[in-house]
Amino acid sequence: MNKKTIVKVLSVVLALVLGLTALWACGGDEPKTDEKEQLIMATNAAFPPYEYKEGDSFAGIDVEIAGLLADKLGMELVIKDVEFGSIVGGVETGKFDMGMAGMTVTPDRLESVNFTTSYATGIQVVIVKEDSSIVSLDDMLADGSMKYGVQQDTTGDIYASLTPDEGGYGQDNVIRYKTGAEAVQALATGKVDAVIIDNEPAKSFVAATEGLKILEAEWTVEDYAICVAKENTELLDKLNAALAELEAEGKIAEIIDRYIGD
Ligand code: GLN
After folding, report:
1. Where does ligand 1 bind, in terms of residues with CB under 6 Å?
2. Structural domains for the chain
3. 87 vs 74: CA distance, rounded Å
4. DSSP state of 120
5. Which atom of ligand 1 is nearest to the CA of 222?
6. 37-60 pLDDT, tens per residue?
């Protein structure tokens, strides 16, 4: 190589290095100061008034509380709308940072994930047709003559599917739907005799459908909390601290009252 060629090669290398440095500086992996770490929340946005879609955006009690939690943690909230039954698994494997979906704390779920302190109470109720022969919980039979609609993988499904001895109606008498709304449609069209579902979504589905009512009796009373991967105790602690602050500031009650009232 003569001198001229060496100079040429060197200048090309230099140009490349400078170019790459410039690229890295403006778009590389160096986090910009205003870029926040993401807090990925998995939910099932078909559960009003806790989470639902309003056009392209998410709304509801959980969505608003999650927004305030992310603010407290200095993180950017990112919401993923998935099937209810895939939330716990996705949180367990780290695909999502947390699951917040009007989710009841159950012993089974506690085997896979941790839960924060509870921020709300959920009640399972029974929806029937206005002219139904079921007027109390005692009328609900496990003899195969009645079918119960539920949203799959929810506590309504889990408890209704228990054997009659365990207080349920047996697997075969339970019909599972992807969403609570579909279960309620099945009731309206006579495919099932009753739907077992959380009280607040029940109210909103019944209000939107002719000829249905909610039985007065409470089928179960449950605690809603946020689930986090077992090993992510750092996030669990931060969420619990932030929840306690929001609780003390009256923010949680304010949000719940605004959606549910009393
Ligand atoms: N609370 C019920 C459960 O945890 C239902 C939640 C839901 O459908 N989003 O199973």
Report:
1. 44, 47, 84, 101-104, 122, 151, 154-155, 198
2. 38-119+225-259 (3.40.190.10), 123-221 (3.40.190.10)
3. 24
4. E
5. 1
6. 999 999 999 999 999 999 999 999
